[in-house]
Amino acid sequence: MKWQIAVLGGDGVGPEVTQAALEVLRETAERFGHELIADTQEVGYAAYERTGNPLPEETLAACHAADAVLLGAVGDPRSAGVPVELRPEASLLALRKEMECYANLRPVRLLPALVSASPLRPEIVAGTDLVIVRELAGGLYYGEPRGPLEDGRAAVDTMKYHEDEVVRIARVAFETARGRRKSVLSVDKANVLYSSRLWHRVVDEVAEEYPDVECDHMLVDRAAMELVLNPSSFDVMLTPNLFGDVLSDEAAAVVGSIGLLASASTGSGPGGIFEPVHGSAPDIAGTGTANPLAMILSAALLLRHVYSLEAEAEAIESAVAEVLEDGLRTNDLVRAGEEAVGTAEMGAAVAAAVANVGADASA
């Protein structure tokens, strides 16, 4: 099978972690008899600096022509003076719209080797295994009107949802739950926000289509508290755009580091965008110290969701667990007295482990 993937390294540590993920993908393709065709393109500030556009036409064309997009990160402090519509973040929002990605899946699982990396006590964090299903194409990030008012001394952003947007993301959450522990927790702020009252009602209507799945609701502030008090109680968490963005970062800290969280953005199209939850981390860009595991795990999600290659995806995930069990840690995971490995070394170790895991899986 040919894997035609548009590879967008982006800004900051994005190209570094993307290179590590590509090494793992190449090893996986070789081990399982596939062909990887990577079309590397620019996005974000790197693209703006060269072309004046954070999402150039050639990049967009490559994304549409590919089976899926592997995206490193966007964001650069040098873009502070750039018009809002040309900033790196605008390219990400535009790409999600262009690729018709309205559902963002963010798996959050505590790996046994990283119990000590969590800031929570082992007995609290043990067994944490959830998926945040974040609505990605609506809500506060896209609602109109938005922008500055009164010569910059006031501003407005609008949180708006149509029931159709809620229906489609709710169905993704319930379908995801059917393949897990059959429990959906919908997060909103229905005690204050009209958009959340709509969200709450529509989720209940969709829940009637899934009598085998338990459905509950929780206010977002309570959900944030429960994530640190009882993280193992969650199965599938369904959230509007903004709430999912915030809660997934909190969940990442619960299981050890945001450098571990992968994501899959899917929707109406056949492919999707696969990227780490973390940002471009410009403060450590170029140092070779970034954790590539979130990007590598995003590549595993790509193989699972786009090509239905479960054995290949599991080989990557097992390889990640193996190198962590062997004691390899990047800077974000080390404790006092431990020695950190760099981005390239961690990527190479996972690639080497894939060779062994793949050999077992294909025997």
Could you explain the architecture of this structure?
The chain is α/β, with parallel strands linked by helices. It folds into 2 domains: 1-99 and 271-363, Isopropylmalate Dehydrogenase (3-Layer(aba) Sandwich), CATH 3.40.718; 102-268, 3-Layer(aba) Sandwich (Isopropylmalate Dehydrogenase). Helices cover 43% and strands 19% of the residues. The protein has 12 helices and 12 strands. Strands 2-1-3-12-11-4-5-10-8-9 form a 10-stranded mixed β-sheet, with helices on both faces. β11 and β12 form a beta hairpin. The radius of gyration is 20 Å and the shape is globular. It starts with a strand and ends with a helix.
Supply the number of helical segments. 12
Share of helical residues = 40-55%
What is the CATH superfamily label of the largest domain? Answer: Isopropylmalate Dehydrogenase
Main sheet record:
10 strands, mixed
Distance between the termini: 18 Å
The proportion of residues in beta strands is 15-25%
The helix-and-strand class reads: alpha/beta
How many E strands?
12
User: What is the alpha-carbon Rg in Å?
Assistant: 20 Å
Itemize the secondary structure elements and their pairings:
Blueprint (H helix, E strand, L loop, with lengths): L1 E9 L3 H19 L2 E7 L3 H7 L5 H9 L2 E6 L14 H11 L2 E9 L12 H4 L3 E7 L11 E3 L4 E3 L6 H16 L4 E6 L5 H14 L6 E6 H10 L6 E4 L1 H14 L7 E6 L5 E4 L16 H15 L2 H16 L17 H20 L1
Parallel strand pairs: 1-2, 1-3, 3-12, 5-10, 8-9, 8-10
Antiparallel strand pairs: 4-5, 4-11, 6-7, 11-12
